Structure formats: structure tokens, C-alpha cells
């Protein structure tokens, strides 16, 4: 399988994630697009997945939460070994460095998922829609 197919596979997983505040998916809001996913091969049949998403507004308070949803859904759904790096697209958020640190810190992600209120929101966002 080439990298382009892997990128589409990754995109297929994240495009249906719902926005925490709106009834729309991240794809519908252009928070994620096909071109925001990059996959690179790593040694040992593993892949590095880099995702750059664009919050809907530069001061979006939910950017960290969206990053968390991306983390959780990909960890659950991807059938291949991978390392994940998730970033806010450059220039799309006023505190992008802080957000990037938070969403790529495994301990902070784990702690966030132990918070029942947060976990419930994430679960609702990553749930597969019933068509």
C-alpha cells in the first residue's frame, strides 16, 4: 500500500468526527481536509502520521478538544502501527504552540480522558454517525 492510500485511510477515519459545538463534521467545516494528512514510513512496519487541522476561528476554545478527538479516534480505528503527531495549522490559532504541546503529550491526553465530562464529549464527537 502506498502512502497516498494510507493518507486516505487516515482521512476516512477523521473526516466524520463531529465538531464539539456544531452538528457538522470536521470535514464539513474544513477543519480537516485530505491535504492535512501526511503519512511517512518508519522502520519496522510502522508509520508516522502527521495531521494539521485548522480551527474554525483563531481563538477557538475547542481546538485542544478537537485534537483530543483526533487522537482518540485514530488510536481506536487505525489497523496499522503508527506514531501520531497532531498540530494546529500554522497561523490558524492564537495559542497554537500551547495547543500543539497539549495534544501531543500522552500523559495530558490520558489525564483528559479520565475526566468523565470531557470523555463524554469526546465519545459523542468520535461516534460513527447513524446514516
What does this structure look like?
The protein is α+β, with helices and mostly antiparallel strands and 131 residues long. 42% of the residues lie in helices and 16% in strands. The chain has helices at residues 3-14, 63-77, 96-103, 106-114, 116-126; strands at 37-42, 46-53, 82-88. Strands 1-2-3 form a three-stranded mixed beta sheet. The termini are far apart.
Weakly predicted, low-confidence segments:
none
How many β-strands, per DSSP? 3
| Radius of gyration, in angstroms, nearest whole number | 14 Å
What is the molecular shape?
A: globular
* Major sheet strand order: 1-2-3
**Major sheet characteristics:** 3 strands, mixed
> What share of residues are in beta strands?
15-25%
Helix content: 40-55%
Order of helices and strands: HEEHEHHH
Mean pLDDT: 93
Could you tell me how far the N terminus lies from the C terminus, measured between alpha carbons in angstroms? 29 Å
Please describe the structure with a list of short key phrases separated by commas or semicolons.
131 residues; single chain; three-stranded mixed sheet
Explain briefly what this protein structure is:
The chain has helices at 3-14, 63-77, 96-103, 106-114, 116-126, and strands at 37-42, 46-53, 82-88. The chain is of the alpha+beta class. The chain has a three-stranded mixed β-sheet with strand order 1-2-3.
